Recover the amino acids of this structure.
């Protein structure tokens, strides 16, 4: 049914989207690559000069870089741990026969729709503030010294905030996967007297493995680029204690105006994200029946 | 589940689920409640409901800052970028769903891969381009960026919806002598509309909450709510009740839209990998 005519029409229909995305991806990325080989500071325009790999050497030997890489991995790993584990438990719970299931589901999903700057500021001020925060009041009520979350444990606090935002996503996807499970198999296992834990381990968990992988990969893509939550809570501090790679590149280029160094960091971030992306693409590609 | 459970078990699960659900929702509830307190009560000993209710924060937020301007910026940026992206994506997804070629699969995956490009990788060139062309802190600049950022997700979502429209209907219409225009207007649009509406809904939500580009490319004029709320992070902005009122107004529209889009969320953000 695909005639030459319809084929050329199809090409015409696809090309605007392709050209725009090509421009969006290739042009700025090539510019970043080019900037990363320059000594280029926005405060002294007109003095750009080619320096080869110097920016990469500088960036990759900067102690801030290793702190940022470690923080990025802790942030991604910590949030994944909480959301995947919590998501599985919550999805199992929401699949149980409960009254008002629809409403509970809405309550659980709601944090996903809160914009990052709002959730970060609400947690920072109204919960984690060591004087007026709800946690401080709770601590004093039981006679414990209030804990200054964002000063004493900045990265941990940000992990909690981001995990709260992403737990709904993991829960929703895992719940969707659980609900597509064949009920008869579970019933048969129950008839045979398999205890709840065994049923979970041998039937439910294998069924979920694909959804879990999807959750991990997609969240990783988004979590590598966490920015707003850090900007409004700690500004990456104290020191570099809560600076991730995204924030470091932002600080280097837009706060210290070092375009060359910032660009080198941007390229490092692209390479890291690509490693994750390759796995995700394979998984999505397998499911694409074309 | 078809199995019968005792009322006791059911009540037990219900109590547990509600307790956890309320705990997860609590920060949002607390924000809404705090927005109705006076500033003194907001930082005073916690009160769940027994406080003097006031709506002064809502009027104060508008009189102290151009809140309505930022709200409209959010509306224009979120809706504008989504509508433009839809206009570009509908033909593309259409062609790929109904006349796939050998390259379609690769093309779709490549589009998806652009979504995985970390924004810091292109922050500096975009920032400099915007600065040199006067697009910094303009609504049009942000509409352009968010159109491109969300285009891959929109193409993918539309593609998965269009794939479910049976091709036989198309062939039958062609047999009856319908040309492409008639095909689109009379046969496919009615069938495609629900998918397009779902895509629109989810992407308005994503664009409304986008907080990397909006924070980096705007200052005072074109700042949407994400960037405006961020200004409350400075110490002099520590007014809990007003922060809560501004936040409540900023998240309410999307919370309501979000309740309608639960299903699309799974589909749109997993690219069809989980159904």
């Amino acid at each position: 049914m695909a005639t030459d005519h319809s084929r050329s029409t199809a090409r015409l229909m696809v090309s605007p989207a392709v050209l725009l995305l090509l421009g969006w991806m290739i042009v700025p990325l090539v510019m970043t690559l080019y900037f990363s080989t320059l000594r280029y500071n926005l405060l002294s325009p007109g003095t750009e000069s080619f320096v080869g790999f110097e920016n990469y050497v500088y960036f990759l030997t900067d102690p801030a870089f290793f702190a940022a890489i470690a923080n990025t991995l802790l942030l991604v790993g910590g949030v994944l741990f909480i959301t995947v584990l919590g998501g599985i438990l919550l999805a199992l719970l929401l699949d149980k026969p409960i009254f008002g299931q629809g409403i509970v589901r809405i309550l659980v999903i709601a944090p996903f729709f809160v914009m990052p700057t709002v959730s970060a500021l609400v947690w920072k001020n109204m919960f984690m503030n060591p004087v007026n925060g709800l946690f401080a009041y709770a601590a004093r009520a039981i006679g414990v010294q209030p804990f200054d979350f964002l000063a004493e444990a900045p990265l941990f606090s940000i992990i909690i905030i981001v995990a709260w935002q992403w737990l709904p996503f993991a829960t929703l996807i895992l719940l969707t996967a659980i609900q597509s499970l064949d009920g008869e198999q579970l019933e048969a296992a129950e008839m045979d007297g398999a205890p709840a834990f065994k049923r979970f381990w041998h039937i439910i968990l294998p069924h979920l493995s694909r959804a879990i992988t999807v959750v991990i990969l997609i969240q990783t893509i988004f979590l590598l680029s966490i920015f707003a939550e850090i900007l409004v809570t700690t500004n990456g501090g104290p020191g570099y204690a809560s600076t991730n790679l995204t924030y470091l590149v932002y600080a280097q280029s837009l706060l210290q105006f070092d375009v060359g160094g910032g660009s080198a960091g941007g390229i490092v971030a692209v390479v890291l994200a690509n490693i994750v992306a390759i796995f995700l693409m394979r998984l999505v590609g397998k499911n694409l029946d074309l | 589940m078809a199995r019968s459970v005792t009322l006791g078990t059911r009540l037990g699960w219900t109590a547990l689920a509600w307790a956890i659900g309320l705990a997860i929702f609590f920060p949002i509830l607390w924000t809404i409640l705090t927005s109705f307190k006076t500033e003194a009560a907001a930082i005073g000993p916690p009160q769940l409901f027994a406080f003097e209710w006031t709506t002064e924060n809502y009027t104060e937020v508008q009189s102290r800052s151009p809140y309505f301007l930022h709200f409209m910026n959010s509306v224009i940026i979120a809706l504008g970028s989504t509508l433009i992206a839809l206009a570009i994506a509908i033909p593309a997804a259409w062609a790929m769903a109904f006349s796939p070629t050998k390259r379609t699969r690769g093309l779709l995956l490549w589009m998806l891969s652009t979504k995985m490009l970390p924004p810091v990788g292109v922050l500096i060139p975009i920032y400099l381009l915007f600065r040199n062309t006067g697009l910094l802190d303009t609504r049009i600049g942000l509409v352009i960026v968010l159109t491109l950022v969300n285009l891959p997700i929109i193409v993918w979502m539309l593609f998965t919806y269009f794939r479910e429209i049976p091709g036989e209907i198309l062939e039958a219409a062609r047999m009856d002598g319908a040309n492409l225009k008639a095909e689109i207007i009379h046969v496919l649009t009615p069938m495609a509309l629900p998918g397009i509406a779902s895509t629109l809904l989810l992407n308005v939500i994503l664009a409304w909450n986008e907080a990397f580009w909006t924070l980096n490319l705007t200052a005072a004029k074109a700042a949407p709510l994400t960037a405006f709320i961020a200004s409350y992070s400075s110490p002099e902005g520590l007014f809990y009740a007003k922060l809560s009122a501004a936040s409540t107004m900023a998240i309410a529209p999307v919370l309501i839209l979000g309740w309608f889009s639960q299903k699309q969320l799974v589909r749109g953000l997993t690219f069809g990998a989980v159904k």
User: Anything to note?
Assistant: Chain B has two domains: 7-58, 66-270.
